[in-house]
Amino acid sequence: MSAPEIIVGAGGHGRVLADALQLEGRAVAGFVDPGCELKSDGLPILGDDDVLEAWPDSGLVNGIGGPAGSDLRRRVQTRLEAAGHRFYGVRHPSAIVAVTARIDPTVQLLARAVVQPGATLEAGVVINTGAIVEHDCVVGAFTHCAPGSILCGGVTVGDGCHIGAGAVIREGVRLGDGIVVGAGAVVVRDCLDAGMQLLGVPAERRGTK
Fold this sequence. Notes:
Layout: E1 5-8, H1 12-23, E2 28-32, E3 45-47, E4 60-62, H2 72-82, E5 90-91, E6 96-97, E7 102-103, E8 108-109, E9 114-115, E10 120-121, E11 126-127, E12 132-133, E13 138-139, E14 144-145, E15 150-151, E16 156-157, E17 162-163, E18 168-169, E19 174-175, E20 180-181, E21 186-187, E22 196-199, E23 204-208
Parallel strand pairs: 1-2, 1-4, 2-3, 5-8, 6-9, 7-10, 8-11, 9-12, 10-13, 11-14, 12-15, 13-16, 14-17, 15-18, 16-19, 17-20, 18-21, 20-22
Antiparallel strand pairs: 22-23
């Protein structure tokens, strides 16, 4: 797109996205974030959501991070899309994506992310720094695969999950919606109950988030 893009959220995740966008050669106008008033890494805080009316031709990029298991990213994006705004994805130049992978236009692929053949990434998915999605995986909407996490071949992950940093999901495992996998956990069996926490090696259920 030709108009400069605006990042929603000026925290750490938003700043990482700004860098990736600029490395792609895409113009960034700045951030909208009601909780910030300062410049972030040289880009201005434009104001809160109300200022978006002054930028009708700009697309948005979802820069909201938040705690594991939070659905704030989804809620904010859904609200702004209902108001007529359009969100775009990010693909860091160092990301590796197979030609047969199916990637929603709003997906965010950060530095050294790998997505292998036959994988499907649905709307709002984040594949963070160095995370790997192996062949034929399906990753549900607004799921976040944190840095260094690995989905082995044929894994299915539901909507709104969080796969913690360095976690590994064994091949063929299925996870339900809203599941939080702790950092460094190794998941070796299915867990289809929504909202569960999986912690440890091998990962065990520790109640809901």
